[in-house]
Amino acid sequence: MIDSSxxxxxxxxxxxxxxxxxxxxxxxxxxxxxxxxxxxxxPHCVSPDAAPMPSRQKFDxxxxxxxxxxxKSPFAATVAVSDAVRLALSPLGHPQRRALASLxxxxxxxxxxxxxxxxFYQASEMLGISxxxxxxxxxxxxxxxxRLSGKRVLDIGSxxxxxxxxxxxxxxxIIGIDPNPFxxxxxxxxxxxxxxxxxxxxxNKFENFAPSQKFDAILSLSNHFTYDGYLLxxxxxxxxxxxxxxxxxxLFICESHPPQFEARAKGQDxxxxxIASVFDxxxxxxxxxxxSLDKSRVFFVGVxx
Length: 305
Description:
By secondary structure, the protein is α/β, with parallel strands linked by helices. It is about 35% helix and about 20% strand. It is built from 10 helices and 11 strands. The two termini are about 25 Å apart.
């Protein structure tokens, strides 16, 4: 949610003006920003006056530090133990049992990149799952519940579908696509468990996806180019394809990679320029989360020209 105490930046900014855009407690300077409204957010996830972290969050934060210091195996092992204890107290039909089986099968059979490094990439407090990225904080940082209210949404690279499932009660319909069939199996498993009927998941590559209807909004969360190379072509061709799938005035919400990986393409400023060539950018902000993989990422909200 937007913190009412956050100070709004001025509107009607001239192109080329340098402006601070704050989402995390540290203000971020963005250059070459188009003449649109700049909003400021301070999500509860990182607010300095927020309630202390519950023990679960503290454990996840500790696990992230272990992972960053020692590598993927300690992270996977640490959070797996945490969730295993919770799972042991759950009924035999708990969906996480099938999810863990799907992850184990994926490690044996999937030749693509393992985004979770042996465990879940997306975390979910609602589902009791640790992971490398916070679903709740990403949703809150980008105000997705409000932005996607009543909209038909495409989630590109939906992974295990936790973001789509968290947004189901707000959007009219969400379609998640991902080339990894094991992630799709996990997503469908939790969709069934939660009895959600307005979300569907498709195992497919984005370039092969041919929907019968256009969308009101597209979520492109760190998918304009990927670690595993499953998205073919340039960032420009990817953005053009996204525009084709949007209705006039549709929303395009794009999350960057961390700066060190985004630099392999054109960097975060270069990504902003690419997006601005196809969409009218209305907001640039930061992902506010304590998780290490969420830090230093920015997001853009654009409107189809």
